[in-house]
Design brief:
By secondary structure, this protein is an alpha+beta fold. Helix content is 29%, strand content 35%. The two termini are 20 Å apart.
């Protein structure tokens, strides 16, 4: 089965909102004392099926965040969102983090923790059940969640691959 390329080509006409997932202070000991730098992981999305993540590192927090936003804009993917939820259940593993995403009925809300919640809200999912297993490292959780969303297939894609109509996808 061929994997679809969900990369977004141009970001000029997309209105993106950014969410800060985590800031990490890194200390480097030199002969002159301690040097502090900051690493910020940021998620951007248009809340309508497009999401991306970025990592920014700098000597100040604000600079690290802005670098993270710029990196996230270069790393956007398109995700199928069907009636405010995801089209099907998906599991994905990245590093020590394993995520499970399940579609939910309207009114359920985003049942997900920290890093996963930021990604799911940025992509525009309003109803989903999500479970994080294994490592809770925000870097790996963000990458695992975006990986799971990137593997999602819309009903239209499934119909095209099978050579049938969209109504037959749902009715079997």
């Amino acid at each position: 089965m061929a994997k679809a390329n969900n990369r977004v080509k141009s970001t000029n006409d997309i209105e993106l909102k950014d969410r800060l997932v985590a800031i990490n202070r890194v200390t480097k000991v030199t002969k002159g004392g301690r040097t502090f730098t900051f690493a910020a992981i940021v998620v951007v999305g248009n809340e309508n099926g497009i999401v991306g993540w970025g990592l920014g590192k700098a000597n100040e927090v604000t600079t690290a965040i802005s670098k993270g936003i710029e990196a996230a804009k270069k790393n956007l993917v398109k995700v199928p969102v069907h009636k405010g939820t995801i089209p099907h259940e998906q599991e994905f593993k990245f590093g020590g983090s394993r995520v499970l995403l399940r579609p939910a009925s309207h009114g359920t809300g985003v049942k997900a923790g920290g890093a996963m919640r930021a990604v799911l809200e940025s992509v525009g999912v309003t109803d989903v059940l999500a479970k994080s297993k294994g490592s809770s490292n925000p870097h790996n959780l963000v990458k695992a969640t975006i990986g799971a969303l990137n593997e999602m297939r819309s009903p239209i894609m499934v119909a095209q691959n099978r050579g049938i109509s969209v109504s037959k996808v749902f009715n079997g």
